[in-house]
């Protein structure tokens, strides 16, 4: 149980805000460089892993083992012709990729790379392995993630074309439906840690990672972070099968590269957030931390953090090489009918458990209370579904009987429709029976058109 004194102590951020300006600049450059290097590596790694899954070679020309392929692609994009379409709103058209890319870099500012109380030495100055921290750091992460979606929406609108507009609208709807479940998953972590500070959340996982305490929240966040980054199988805004290229169809050169950069930086950012909230942050895994006391000291936490982030990036790549793209209606159904209800119910369950723990209830009593409540809900839902199913069966039978009695109209709604089972097409007017059609002889009187017959009769007159 987390007492109020422990919560206040965990939110003590006095170690931040005292670094000299040059050290703050160095840490900011490190965060930027960390994202850029990770993005360059992730692009090559994705192409290599997908090629390995598909029994191909992958990049192997630029640099050793093709490691400089992503750098070569970036140089190539910068050297391409920068085209601005004629019907575009030029100001918004140029600002859209910038709006999409800048917020992607901002969330890394509050991610801890190491413990705040065990500071490292940089040029003789002791400092925490984190740029800064806030009492509401996770709300800051949600805010900057939401701002980035404006770049995609404005890119689709400002292009002056149909397909980019549809891609931008898809992205907006996708963001709305998935950020609700993401916020509920975050709230479960806040209830257990007692803080919204990223460094305090990692400190609260000293005994047990939240992936073990809150597995449903972790699964919900993993699904929502894939949807937030517009990655396969949820890459609806840029699905080339039906939208050509989506919101970035009319972009080229460096502006197109900024959209791709924003996508991969967002992948790194959401992976870092997932590591911070559920995977113990910079803490070493259990076998190492149990047998090595210095595993979480010095610069070693940076290694564990990077390895965990790379593991989640591999998960992104694995999904892209394995699962096909879902339909848009399936995407919306998953977000509104599955993730949001499950996340809300799970949040209520977590809040109930925390409230009972704060009232000093025994763990076995909490388990019995929660299991009883869940069992009651399941029985109630079963009874409701049972009566609802009987009612739907009766309504379906009445509807089928009415449809069978009513004459079938193949042009209902102005469009030709095929008959359903139990329905039959009405007879075609002025159509001879099949037996009569077989008896017609070529050149006979039945093969003469009405116009030619009238012409012959006129000649005879």
Automatic annotation (TrEMBL):
Spans through the membrane: 20-45, 91-114, 134-157, 178-202, 208-227, 256-282, 302-322, 334-354, 366-387
Chain intervals with Pro residues compositional bias: 416-428
Reaction it catalyzes: a quinone + NADH + 5 H(+)(in) = a quinol + NAD(+) + 4 H(+)(out)
Entry's localization field: Cell membrane; Membrane
EC number: 7.1.1.-
Residue segments, region Disordered: 402-461
UniProt-listed HAMAP family: NDH1_NuoH
Official protein name in the record: NADH-quinone oxidoreductase subunit H
Species the sequence originates in: Streptomyces yaizuensis
Phylogenetic placement of the source organism: Bacteria, Bacillati, Actinomycetota, Actinomycetes, Kitasatosporales
């Amino acid at each position: 149980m987390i007492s109020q004194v422990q919560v206040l102590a965990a939110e003590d951020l006095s170690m931040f805000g005292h670094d000299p300006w040059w050290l703050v600049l160095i840490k900011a450059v490190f965060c930027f460089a960390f994202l850029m290097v990770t993005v360059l590596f992730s692009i090559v790694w994705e192409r290599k892993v997908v090629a390995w899954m598909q029994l191909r070679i992958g990049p192997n020309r630029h640099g050793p083992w093709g490691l400089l392929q992503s750098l070569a692609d970036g140089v190539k994009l910068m050297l391409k012709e920068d085209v601005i379409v004629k019907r575009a709103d030029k100001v918004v058209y140029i600002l859209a990729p910038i709006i999409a890319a800048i917020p992607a870099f901002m969330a890394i500012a509050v991610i801890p790379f190491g413990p705040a109380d065990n500071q490292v030495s940089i040029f003789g100055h002791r400092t925490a392995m984190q740029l800064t921290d806030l009492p509401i750091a996770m709300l800051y992460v949600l805010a900057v993630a939401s701002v980035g979606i404006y770049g995609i929406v404005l890119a689709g609108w400002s292009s002056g074309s149909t397909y980019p507009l549809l891609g931008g609208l898809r992205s907006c709807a996708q963001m709305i439906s998935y950020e609700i479940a993401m916020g509920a998953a975050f709230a479960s972590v806040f209830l257990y840690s007692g803080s919204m500070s990223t460094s305090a959340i990692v400190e609260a996982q000293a005994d047990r990672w939240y992936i073990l305490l809150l597995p449903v929240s972790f699964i919900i966040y993993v699904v929502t972070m894939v949807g937030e980054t517009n990655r396969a199988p949820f890459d609806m805004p840029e699905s080339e099968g039906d939208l050509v290229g989506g919101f970035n169809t009319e972009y080229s050169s460096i502006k197109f590269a900024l959209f791709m950069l924003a996508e991969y930086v967002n992948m790194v950012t959401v992976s870092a957030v997932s590591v911070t909230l559920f995977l113990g942050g910079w803490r070493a895994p259990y076998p190492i931390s149990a047998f090595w006391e210095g595993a979480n000291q010095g610069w070693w936490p940076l290694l564990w953090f990077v390895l965990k982030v790379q593991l989640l990036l591999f998960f992104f790549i694995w999904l892209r090489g394995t699962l096909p793209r879902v339909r848009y209606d399936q995407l919306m159904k998953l977000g509104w009918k599955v993730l949001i209800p499950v996340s809300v119910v799970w949040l209520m369950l977590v809040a109930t458990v925390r409230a009972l723990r704060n009232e000093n209830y025994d763990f076995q009593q909490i388990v019995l209370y929660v299991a009883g409540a869940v069992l009651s809900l399941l029985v109630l839902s079963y009874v409701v579904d049972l009566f609802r199913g009987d009612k739907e069966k009766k309504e379906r039978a009445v509807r089928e009987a009415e449809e069978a009695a009513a004459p079938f109209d193949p042009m209902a709604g102005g469009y030709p429709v095929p008959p359903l089972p139990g329905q039959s097409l009405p007879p075609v007017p002025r159509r001879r029976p099949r037996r009569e059609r077989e008896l017609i002889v070529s050149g006979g009187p039945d093969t003469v058109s009405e116009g030619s017959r009238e012409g012959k009769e006129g000649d005879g007159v």
